[in-house]
Structure formats: structure tokens, C-alpha cells
Amino acid sequence: MPSLQPGHPRARSGRPGSGPVCLLSGGLGSSWFDWDLVVPFLTPYRTVVRFDRPGYGLSAAEPAAGRPSPTAVGEAGRIRAVLDGLGLREPCTVVGHSLAGFHVEAFARLHPERTAGLVLVDGSVEAAARPYPAPGARDLAARAVAGVATALAVPYLLGPTVRRATARMSTVRREDLAPAPLVRHCYRTGRALRALLRENGRYLDTAAELDELRRSRPLAEDLPVTVLAADDGCRTRRTEDWLARQRELAALLGADFRSTAPAGHLVMSDRPDAVASAVLDTH
């Protein structure tokens, strides 16, 4: 593993597995261990890289100097830096869950020579997104709220509990399988809260930025793309609307559409086999 400076993502590789490279990027508030159930399905056939964006998992927060806001282009550059830092320069299958779907799609558009496949796991969908004004002020506010909450020990007291409750609500089995010591270590920190608030505050900005990339930077014509949607098995309007939006995303990208049931938004926990199959079938 390369030496990574403060504010850089912490990569989980050590070159587990062998074969073509795939990179797994988690959604808003996720850490590398949310992919734990998927990795054993992949390592017989793939070299697997997981990483934590700054503030999540064991990664340091972004340095105060410059205070860059999260962007689609910036996160695509971060993915490339992780791969370069690990000496993995061959084309890679990039896999993004939820919000990270924006990031990996941006990577595929900006770095087609480095992309062997694209998999969006219940990826975020925002048609014709319009960002809110004053992004700098919003980012400053997110930092300020996180700072006050940290000073009041809110993350230390409630962070792991909120993380577990959110994970349970995002799975059909209603449980969080992440190791309790890791959850406590990673979610008691103010840096995790700050990262979450900053990314959430830039959500529509990132979606709008990706819309612009879709117009100016087409995907490679022969790129295998898969949209894997979570289906909780309930025939509610909410579920049907979400599946319809995922189908529209697949049509927009010319992607193979798959749904997996029963599964909540944290598909990696409910159906790790389906996630692995989507990855292995792309390359």
C-alpha cells in the first residue's frame, strides 16, 4: 500500500485476489467494510480495491487549507489517484454505490482509457438537477455545523447508533453486519460527520456537474455498463417509482439493467452475490 498523506483516501487493497482490477466505492456515509460480504465472491477472479473518501472509515479529513468542496470531477480524480498510488494503471472496472455512482460514472467519462467497466449499485438518480446557490457558503455551513456538533460530543455519543439505525433501515433483513468495534471507531469521529454533511450539501451540485459531463464527455461506445437496482419485494408505489428511475438511468447510459430482490438500498449486505455477479459480468 502506498504512503498516503493526511486528507488522502485510505485504500484497502494489499492486492487481495488476482486478475483484472475492480474498484469499489461506497455511498454517502459508507466505509470500506460495507463491501465485506462482496469481496469473497470477487477475489478468486479479481484484484479488489476498496477505499474511504476523506473523513470516512480510517481516512483523515480533508486538510483545512484550500477547503475543496466535493465534486464529480474531483472524486473522479481521487479514484485515479488511488489506482495510481497502488501502481494499478491497467483498465479497471469501477463500481459505485448510491452517491458514488456519480463519482464512478464521472471517472468513466473523464478517463475512458482507464475504465474497463462501469457498475452502478442502486446508484443515485437526479434528472435535470439544479444546484442550490452559494456553494461556498453551504460548504462553510456544513463545516460549522459539524464543528459545533463535534464540540458537543454528538458524534461520539450518537454516531455509531445513527450509523447502525441507518444501515438497518437500508436492508431487508433489518440488521447491520458491520463489525461493532469498527463502527464505533469510525463513526464516533467528527470527521465522518463533516464528510457526510459536506457531501450531502453538494449532492445536487454533483448531479448537475455529471449532467454536464454526460453532454460533453460521452462514455466509450464499447464500455460494458450495468445498473443494478434494489427491489425490496414490496409492490408499493415508492418501490415501483424507484425501479422506474433506475430503468431510465440504464436507458440513458445504454446499460444492462438488473434488479435484485429482496434487497434494500444497502444491496451489498442483502445480496452480495448479485453485486459480485454484476461486476464479474462486465469484464
pLDDT < 50 stretches: 1-8
Give the strand line-up of the largest sheet.
Answer: 1-3-2-4-5-6-7
Q: How would you classify the helix and strand content by structural class?
A: alpha/beta
Instruction: Please trace the helix and strand order, writing H or E for each element.
Output: EEHEHEHEHHHHHEHEHH
**Rg, alpha carbons:** 18 Å
The counted number of beta strands is 7
Helical region count?
Answer: 11
β-strand percent reads 5-15%
What is the average of the pLDDT values? Answer: 92
Concise account of the structure shown:
With 283 residues, the protein is an alpha/beta fold. It is built from 11 helices and 7 strands.
Describe the model.
With 283 residues, this protein is an alpha/beta fold. It is 45% helix and 13% strand. It contains 11 helices and 7 strands. The chain has helices spanning 39-42, 72-85, 100-110, 135-151, 154-169, 180-187, 190-201, 203-216, 237-253, 267-270, 272-280; strands spanning 10-12, 21-25, 47-52, 92-97, 115-121, 225-230, 256-260. The chain has a 7-stranded mixed sheet with strand order 1-3-2-4-5-6-7, sandwiched between helices. Strand 6, helix 9 and strand 7 form a beta-alpha-beta unit. The two termini are 25 Å apart.
Index terms:
11 helices, 13% strand, 283 residues, 7-stranded mixed sheet, alpha/beta
Produce the secondary structure layout.
Layout: E1 10-12, E2 21-25, H1 39-42, E3 47-52, H2 72-85, E4 92-97, H3 100-110, E5 115-121, H4 135-151, H5 154-169, H6 180-187, H7 190-201, H8 203-216, E6 225-230, H9 237-253, E7 256-260, H10 267-270, H11 272-280
Parallel strand pairs: 2-3, 2-4, 4-5, 5-6, 6-7
Antiparallel strand pairs: 1-3
Helix pairs in contact: 2-3, 3-8, 4-7, 5-6
